[in-house]
Amino acid sequence: MTLWIDTHCHLDAREFSADIAAVHARAVANGVAHCTLPAVGVVNFDAVRLLAHEYAFSYALGIHPLLVPEALDTDLQTLDDELTRRRLDPRLVAVGEIGLDYFVPALKQSPMRERQEYFYREQLKLARKHGLPVILHVRRSADRLLKHLRELVPKKSEGNGWTGIAHAFNGSEQQAMAFINLGFKLGFGGAVTFDPARQLRRLAAELPLDALVMETDSPDIPPQWLYTTAARRASGQPQGRNEPGELPRIAKQLAGLRGLSPEALAVATTANALQALPKLRALVSC
Asked: In 10 A of CB 196, how many CB atoms?
């Protein structure tokens, strides 16, 4: 069976509270060998850790930019303390999900823009301190993310530079190559299944194969076959729920864009995930 790694899914979300065991079983049945669960704030640090241990997944700890408006400065100390407490936990593989979001209008205006950047920089410093990769939230913010990454490149004593994943990448080719040159892999998921996403599909087809990893962002970013239009949502039909078991079908479309077999894409993206998140090597048998 072709085996996959879902490098980004939020299985602690309330959408999965009633059937997480069934979601896990479908993922395994469809060849998803491993899932990485990023936290979004101190409120779910315990949840992602406990799920990772229960289902033999991995997890990351961080404060998501969308939660920055409610976050306290002391949350950064809480994150530092938790990273220290869990430093010997083999399932803690990264700091994340962290980053910047300039899509939401309220977040791209001062002073919230500056507060986002403060939390982002401080979490990059914590990733350096603890010698961990980072999982980045990139939404209308690639250039600013890159600016801070360049300014805070880990010293030799802290590693050989950045590693990690630019999650749900949807920027330009120039921005993609800038992340790659800094040591990042780029996460691709359900968005590549939409025919109108021409720029994203072109990047998925043309970027270096050794730069790509697969993800679902479950329960979000549903693929085209699960997507509910705004008109249908307005009439009361809920948005389709994404889950890790959809990853092989998403990947099949990406493989088709590149002229690869799904098996070849699985081998490549698994190797890439292990490079981006090195602690996965001890957890994944693919």
From this structure: 8
Sign for the pseudo-dihedral over CA of 120, 95, 32, 243: negative
Model confidence at 133, in pLDDT bands (50, 70, 90)?
very high
Q: How many CB atoms lie within 10 A of CB 38?
A: 29
Residues β-bridged to residue 58: 36
d(CA 188, CA 201): 10
Please, how many CA atoms are within 13 Å of residue 51, restricted to the half-sphere of its CB?
A: 24
Helix (H) or strand (E) holding 106: none
Taken in order of first residue, the domains within the chain and their CATH numbers are 4-282 (3.20.20.140)
Residue 182, SS3 per DSSP: coil
Gap between the Cα atoms of 67 and 77, Å rounded: 16
Q: Is 205 helix (H, G, I), strand (E, B) or coil?
A: helix
The number of residues making up the chain comes to 286
Residue 195 zone, left/alpha/beta (φ > 0; ψ -120 to 50; rest): alpha
How far apart CA 23 and CA 31 sit, in angstroms, is 13
Q: Are 180 and 165 a contacting pair, CB within 8 Å?
A: no
Please state, as a whole number, how many other Cβ atoms lie within 10 Å of the Cβ of residue 259. Answer: 8
Cα-Cα-Cα-Cα torsion 225, 259, 188, 14, nearest 10 degrees, comes to 30
Joined together, the tokens standing for residue 17 give 């509270």
pLDDT in tens, 52-102: 999 999 999 999 999 999 999 999 999 999 999 999 999 999 999 999 999
